């Protein structure tokens, strides 16, 4: 089992910044992809950004140039730096990790952290 603990959400004004963190712990051989998804009220969960174990990144078009994803493999932690935040970024942000356990890739999700951007 893998536990993902998120932190860093909150309320911020339009144009402000927040940094989300997500630490993975538990029994696993390795963590492959990590990333962030978000779900706004009444909408489906959508990809925000992902990062592979060797640092390759992928972003949703809506956040390119404003958000930056990074990770510390030694700490099994992924970060999301969010700048120039807009009210449309308001959502619950979920951490995601794909762990290799007994030669099998298993996906895990965090409990979610609320990000609210007020205008």
Give me the secondary-structure category.
mainly beta
Specify Rg, calculated over alpha carbons.
14 Å
| Biggest sheet details | 7 strands, mixed
Distinct helical segment count:
0
Number of strands: 11
Helix content, binned percent: under 10%
Unreliable segments of 5+ consecutive residues: none
Mean pLDDT metric: 95
For the record, give the distance between the C-alpha atoms at the N and C termini, rounded to a whole number.
Answer: 40 Å
Quaternary organization? single chain
Shape: elongated
| Beta strand % | over 45%
Task: Give keywords.
119 residues, mainly beta, 7-stranded mixed beta sheet, 4-stranded antiparallel beta sheet, 0% helix, 61% strand
Would you write up a description of this structure?
This protein is mainly beta. It is built from no helices and eleven strands. It has strands at 2-7, 10-13, 18-26, 30-39, 46-51, 57-59, 67-72, 77-82, 91-101, 104-109, 113-118. Strands 2, 4, 5, 6, 9, 10 and 11 form a seven-stranded mixed β-sheet that branches. It has a four-stranded antiparallel β-sheet with strand order 1-3-8-7, with no helix packed on it. The chain is elongated. The mean pLDDT is 95.
